[in-house]
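Tokens help. Consider this.
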Amino acid sequence: MMKLSRHHVDTESLLSITPKEIAESLLIRRRALKDQLPNIIKNLDNESEALTPKLAKIREKNQKINIKTSEIKKKRDMFQKEAGEIWNKIKDTQNKLTESGNMINLDPKWKKERMIEELEEIEFNIQTVALDHKAEKKMIEARKNIIKQNELWLKERKASNPEMADFIEKRKKMNSLYKAADKEHKDMMKNVDFGEPVHAKYIATKTELTDINRQRDRAKHLLKNIDRDIGYWENTLLDGFEELMVLAKKVERGDVSSFISNKSKKSKNNAKQIKRDEEE
């Protein structure tokens, strides 16, 4: 008997196989499947049962990471939104100050430079000059006084120009919010990077389980109908192959078999039905 396989067989070789050989080969295959399918289904069931809790665990971990990422993103967006709202107010204030001529620096460069020079001189003396406790204490007190005077000076300038003071406070607040947003963004990206392999494993495990369940369902369907298929080919061997021989001769002449013809008609009818449904 010529061995049947899934490899391509040309028409001449196919027609050289007798219907009886085909039926016997298919019957052997069905009987073998009847013996094999219960074990195949059992193994697939075991694989599915083993993989299901693993998938549930990975899904839970993946969801937790996604929730955390979403929470961090909300915080980042909140900081950015608040900073953007303050920025709009800053632009309005800046325009008003520019138009009124009050857009000045509360702490002029000369003031900063003089304060820095005095502080550096005090710091140098404390670090390098041999001072007794009284002299060192005096230097530290002088440093505190310089800083205190500068803060007092700034406070007086702010009091005389409250709009400018408000402008500066808004700038500080905006900068602080953007820094907070940047920090949340970095944390979010770290969490995303951490979650990528977990998500990939979740997708792979889910796909694997779906494939196993699909194979098992297919095997169960075959087992359910296997006795019917075996009976069909047993009866075919008993009843003969007259109809199959007629179809074979049609193919040999170059005609289309009734199976192909009926399949073509069915496809056309289905296409027409789909078109009618779309029109309705």
In short: The chain has two domains: 21-103+181-240, 105-160. The chain has a mean pLDDT of 77. Residues 105-160 form one domain.
